[in-house]
Amino acid sequence: MGGEKAKAVQIGGASGRCVPATEFSRTLAFEDISTGGSIIIFGPQRDMLRVAKNFMEFFVEESCGQCTPCREGNPKLLEGLELLEQGRCSMKYLRELCQLGETMQVASKCGLGQSSPTAFLSIVQCFPDELMGRPSLSEAAQQ
C-alpha cells in the first residue's frame, strides 16, 4: 500500500479496531481481526487523539438518538477526548469512559451504537502515551 513506517491501521472504517504497528503480524480474518472491508493507514506523524476525536464527532452526528447508550454515550466519549486535548482528563475518568464504551457495545439497540466506541477503546488501549500528559490550556498559554 505504500504505507512505510505506518503507526497504525484502522480495520473496518470508523467503527473498526485501530491496530498498532506492534500487532501488524495479526491476521485479517473472522478468527482474528474481522473487517468490514475498509482499511485506513495512519503514518508516524498522525495524532491518534485527533483520529479518535474525528471518529467520535462522526458518531455524535450520525446517531439517531433513539437509544440512551448511543445518544448519551457518544457525546460523553467525545467530551472525554476534548478534555484529553486540553490536558484535563484524569486516568480515573478515562477508565470510566472506557467502561461506558464497553456498556454501549452491549446495550445499544443498533450496530452504530454498538460499534461507535470501538475505535475510541482501541486507541485508548494501544496509544495511551499519545493521549495522556498533554499540557493543559493554562500550561500551553505559558509556553
Description:
Strands 2-1-3 form a three-stranded antiparallel beta sheet. The model has no long low-confidence stretch (mean pLDDT 89). It has 143 residues and is mainly alpha-helical. It is built from seven helices and three strands; from the N terminus they run E-E-E-H-H-H-H-H-H-H. It has a single domain (8-131), classed as Up-down Bundle (de novo design (two linked rop proteins)), CATH 1.20.1440. Strand 1 (8-11) and strand 2 (17-20) form a beta hairpin. It has helices spanning 48-62, 68-85, 91-107, 111-115, 117-126, 128-131, 137-142; strands at residues 8-11, 17-20, 39-42. Helix 1 (48-62) runs antiparallel to helix 2 (68-85), helix 1 packs antiparallel against helix 5 (117-126) and helix 2 runs antiparallel to helix 3. It is globular and about 40 Å long.
